[in-house]
Amino acid sequence: MGVIEFDLVRVVAGPIEEVFDRLVGIDGYGEWMPKRGSLLRRTRQTSPGPVGLGTTYFDETSAGDVPGEVVEFERPTAITFHWWDASSHGDLKVEGWPGYRLQALGPRSTRVHHHARLQVYGLSRLAAPIYRLMARRERTLVVEALQVSFNRRAAGL
């Protein structure tokens, strides 16, 4: 049970370009990500320039801090991030690939298909059931926060 994968699909009340920009706006995550219940505390971009293929970032989470990079970038339909957590000796414990596929359903509506893949290594595999629960919960919170952030705007809040 070293590989964990799952999919989530939501419809967001926003144009595809704006939904994509929100997902790639790494430094703006604090504005729309959930304030409670999430592992994520802060994300910051660590490479210069606009976000694109190869952009690096650093996530500060309640479970530890992890580096990452953008490994897929196709404006405005696809983005995939890759993050990893390694031991002090450099051995990988776990790495993840949260990705998004966007489809315009109209001028103000976007289908968001979120695919998450997690790979657990070594002794950390013993904790794979816990990683599965944490990952599903975290990814659901993120996708629903994205959805809510656009719903609020559509409602004029």
Name the features:
157 residues; 3 helices; 25% helix
- Average per-residue pLDDT, rounded, comes to 91
What oligomeric assembly is this protein in?
A: single chain
What general form does the structure show?
globular
Number of helices: 3
- H and E string: EHHEEEEEEH
| Percentage of residues in DSSP E strands | 35-45%
Strand order in space, largest sheet? 1-7-6-5-4-3-2
Q: Please mark out the parts with pLDDT under 50 across 5 or more consecutive residues, or reply none.
A: none
Structural class: alpha+beta
Descriptive notes:
This protein is α+β, with helices and mostly antiparallel strands and 157 residues long. Helix content is 25%, strand content 44%. The chain is built from 3 helices and 7 strands. The longest helix is centred in the last third of the chain and has 27 residues, at 128-154. The N and C termini lie far apart (44 Å). The model has no long low-confidence stretch (mean pLDDT 91).
Short description:
25% of the residues lie in helices and 44% in strands. It is an alpha+beta fold and 157 residues long.
Write the layout of secondary structure elements.
Blueprint: E1 3-12, H1 16-24, H2 29-32, E2 40-45, E3 56-61, E4 64-74, E5 78-86, E6 92-106, E7 109-120, H3 128-154
Antiparallel strand pairs: 1-7, 2-3, 3-4, 4-5, 5-6, 6-7
